[in-house]
Design goal:
alpha/beta; single chain; two-stranded antiparallel ribbon
Length: about 270
């Protein structure tokens, strides 16, 4: 397989075929925040009611049961375990929704219980704006999302960051520069009909500078319209990605070619 390539296939297939390891995983999966009831249709096939097409993505249907979604994610993390280098990190952007707010918390719990990974940190991402939640008398408007920093349980004390020593006490205690678990960054780069749930190059660039080094190889299992790859190109990192939507892959390649051309001008 080739680096700096987005593969039009399921992430589990990419990870199974990957013949080298990556330094870090940075991704934003579907959140499973779609109301299951919203997507039921009146069509019956072989005695089973089928879904309407989800509106968030052109290909993926974001309305699994909690059990389906958690099992699916656990399989992903077992795949990450096979491809991630020692002391690498998984930066997993996820949030909760009005329709199914408990999913995220159940998911985190099962990842810890059922995989080799645990949570080392949780970064709060404050977006530039949020859609007003004006139809609820008691639910808050969500302007923040989360990036969970997953590391292998046996690497909890050794996983990689870019924190530098800024001082050492007389007794030999090292003091490190401060990396706050709070990032302000734009919501997304551009809205399009293929993917209504993208994240931003600004966010990914800040994460790359915290946890990766130049020429590191970054894997995004849900590359979408190419945001992670776009940030990697700007920050001189390598990337590899998976995306089941052929149209999003085409969109991403055009977008990345524009970024490469712009960088060549400087």
């Amino acid at each position: 397989m080739k680096i700096n390539t987005i593969y039009n296939e399921d992430a589990l297939i990419t990870m199974k075929n990957l013949d080298f390891k990556v330094d870090s995983v940075i991704t934003s999966p579907p959140y499973n925040t779609g109301s299951r009831i919203e997507y039921w249709s009146n069509k019956i096939v072989n005695g089973v009611r089928v879904y309407k097409q989800d509106k968030r993505y052109d290909k993926y249907l974001d309305s699994k049961t909690n059990e389906e979604y958690i099992d699916w994610t656990v399989n992903l993390f077992n795949g990450y375990n096979n491809i991630l280098k020692n002391d690498g990190v998984i930066l997993y952007n996820i949030s909760y929704g009005n329709e199914n707010p408990e999913t995220m918390w159940l998911l985190i719990s099962d990842i810890i219980k059922r995989t080799d990974f645990t949570v080392a940190d949780c970064i709060t991402w404050k977006k530039a704006n949020a859609l007003p939640n004006t139809t609820s008398k008691n639910k808050l408007t969500r302007i923040c999302e989360f990036i969970f920093v997953f590391v292998r349980k046996n690497e909890f004390l050794s996983f990689n960051t870019n924190k530098k020593i800024i001082n050492t006490s007389r007794k030999g205690q090292d003091f490190y520069e401060v990396f706050y678990n709070y990032i302000e960054a734009s919501n997304n780069d551009v809205s399009n009909d293929l993917n209504k749930a993208t994240f931003s190059t600004e966010l990914i660039r800040k994460l790359l500078l915290m946890y990766t080094k130049e020429n590191d190889l970054i894997y995004d299992s849900f590359m979408g319209t190419g945001t992670t790859a776009n940030a990697c190109i700007i920050e001189n990192r390598n990337y590899i990605g998976s995306e089941i939507s052929e149209e999003q892959c085409k969109y991403a390649e055009k977008r990345l070619n524009i970024t490469k051309s712009q960088l060549q001008l400087f």
